[in-house]
Amino acid sequence: ETVSYEKYSEDWTQRRNAGKWAKFPDYGKFDEGNISLQNHGTKLWYRNIKIKEL
Fold this sequence. Notes:
This protein is an all-alpha fold. Helix content is 17%, strand content 0%. It contains 1 helix and no strands. It is extended. The model has no long low-confidence stretch (mean pLDDT 87).
């Protein structure tokens, strides 16, 4: 699945400010960093993950 958004657009800003991370001023503002995969409460396996720069 691919996710797309326009950073700093009105929609992006509204969603960021309405989310649970709104109290963290740097959330969603970095242009590069790490990619994390997580799951809550059950075992999970990943296989054949490919990440390409678009």
